[in-house]
């Protein structure tokens, strides 16, 4: 569809392609999430890494759309959605057909509700399916294998709905100030909905909901509209003088929230998550300034490596942590716990490196059809590697189908009885994988609850307690 916005070159001093420092921000976000899932006491607000991703995504996607409009005077919706599919689906499908059979071999209790989880993963509707099912993100005694896919669903719904709305906005609203105001207004409505609808007895609805968790994406949109030509000229001059101070303030604010904000504090849902998103906007805006020192500091070899693989790391780390906790039960803080956690992270990074080079990159560059054609040609020449990979892939797909079709609706009674007998013979119950202090549901101010109330973030060892139902 065409728009009437003329193409304009970017202001002097502003990058026209890759934006330096954003890989560093992605790296910070995914590392925060991984630490939070391993040991929340070290980083209670690590869950805010997801909101950093939301702001970055809203900004980048809108920036790409604006550049396309300036260059071609239109938005190719089919091309946009095809590129998104190339970026997201390969790693996701590879994970599903690998993790589901592996979970079936480790313990079939992990497969409770797996059909719904796989459906949500492949249709990018995990958040709404879990809300409809009555799942709880915070009742983590038996976490879902693909629990972390809720945020992927929110982002993909944004990718689906935003481009058509973007075209309408570009055609109907001529001034950048009005566009920014509209985006900020949507962010305000979403944040207000989260604050109003937040129920201490069921925080999952506002945490998972696209409507109540949209403000990070729309704040990123507002920044993109304000940065694009001709509005982006404000980045040169006054802003350039003060941008680094604002960026440092944003970084300090974000790190403070990562260190102190907790996932069930009502403060998080009545301004805390919004504040983290605003701090992220300040950081990105500072990185956009010409000659930004923050961008240079954030742009290094390590941050680029982690940042470019952050999507795969986010996908893989949680299922691997869940399965590792069942394979090797260990009390938090013990040597065994840290060794297990380090091995889980190492396995995650190793799989992500393989996925990035041999699955994601070829399809992202060549597309699905050409990649499949190349694979078929290799098989036709009877290349041992190609034939072996084809057979392995077929086994993984078949194993996934069988595991989903035969998944238990609830843990088998025999399994429960064995665990009960085992627990009764034990003088002491093994400590949970990851204890975390919980709050009184009636508390509205975010204070800590008494330390005697704990629940594990990762599943307790299978010999400790039965998994009665999925989250």
From TrEMBL:
* Biological process, per Gene Ontology: lipopolysaccharide biosynthetic process
GO cellular component terms, A-Z: membrane
Looking at the UniProt entry, the stretches that span the membrane are 18-39, 45-66, 87-106, 157-173, 180-198, 213-230, 242-261, 267-290, 311-331, 337-359
The scientific name of the source species is Flaviflexus ciconiae
What top-level branch of life does the organism fall under?
Bacteria
Q: Which GO terms describe its molecular function?
A: acyltransferase activity, transferring groups other than amino-acyl groups
Domain Acyltransferase residue range list: 20-352
Q: Which residues form a coiled coil?
A: none
What is the official name of this protein in its record?
Acyltransferase
């Amino acid at each position: 569809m065409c728009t009437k916005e003329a193409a304009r070159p970017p202001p002097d001093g502003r990058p026209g392609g890759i934006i330096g420092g954003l890989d560093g921000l992605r790296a910070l976000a995914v590392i925060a999430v991984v630490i939070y899932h391993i040991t929340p006491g070290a980083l209670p607000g690590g869950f805010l890494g997801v909101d950093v991703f939301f702001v970055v995504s809203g900004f980048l996607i809108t920036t790409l759309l604006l550049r396309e409009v300036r260059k071609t005077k239109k938005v190719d919706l089919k091309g946009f959605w095809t590129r998104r599919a190339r970026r997201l689906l390969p790693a996701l499908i590879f994970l599903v057909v690998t993790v589901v059979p592996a979970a079936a071999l480790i313990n079939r209790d992990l497969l409770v509700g797996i059909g719904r989880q796989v459906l949500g993963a492949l249709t990018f509707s995990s958040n709404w399916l879990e809300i409809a099912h009555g799942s709880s993100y915070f009742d983590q005694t038996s976490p879902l294998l693909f629990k972390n896919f809720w945020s992927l669903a929110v982002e993909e719904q944004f990718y689906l709905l935003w481009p058509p709305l973007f075209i309408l906005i570009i055609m109907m609203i001529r001034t950048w100030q009005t566009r920014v105001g509209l985006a900020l207004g949507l962010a305000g409505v979403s944040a207000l909905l989260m604050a109003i609808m937040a129920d201490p007895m069921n925080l999952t609805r506002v945490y998972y909901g696209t409507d109540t968790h949209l403000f990070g994406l729309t704040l990123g949109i507002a920044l993109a509209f304000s940065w694009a030509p001709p509005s982006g000229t404000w980045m040169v001059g006054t802003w350039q003088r003060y941008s680094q101070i604002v960026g440092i303030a944003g970084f300090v604010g974000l790190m403070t929230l990562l260190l102190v904000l907790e996932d069930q504090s009502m403060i998080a849902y009545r301004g805390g998550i919004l504040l983290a998103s605003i701090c992220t906007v300040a950081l990105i805006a500072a990185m956009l300034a010409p000659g930004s020192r923050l961008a240079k500091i954030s742009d290094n070899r390590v941050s680029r490596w982690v940042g470019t693989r952050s999507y795969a790391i986010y996908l893989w780390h949680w299922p691997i942590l869940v399965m590792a906790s069942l394979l090797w039960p260990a009390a938090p803080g013990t040597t065994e716990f840290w060794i297990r956690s380090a091995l889980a992270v190492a396995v995650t990074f190793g799989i992500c490196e393989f996925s990035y080079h041999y699955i994601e990159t070829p399809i992202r560059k060549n597309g699905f059809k050409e990649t499949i054609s190349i694979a078929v040609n290799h098989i036709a020449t009877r290349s041992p590697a190609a034939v072996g990979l084809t057979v392995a892939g077929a086994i993984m797909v078949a194993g996934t189908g069988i595991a989903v079709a035969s998944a238990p609706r609830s843990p088998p009674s025999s399994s429960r009885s064995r665990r009960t007998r085992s627990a009764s013979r034990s003088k002491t119950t093994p400590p949970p994988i990851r204890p975390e202090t919980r709050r009184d549901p009636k508390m509205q101010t975010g204070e800590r609850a008494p330390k005697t109330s704990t629940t594990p973030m990762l599943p307790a060892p299978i010999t400790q307690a039965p998994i009665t139902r999925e989250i």
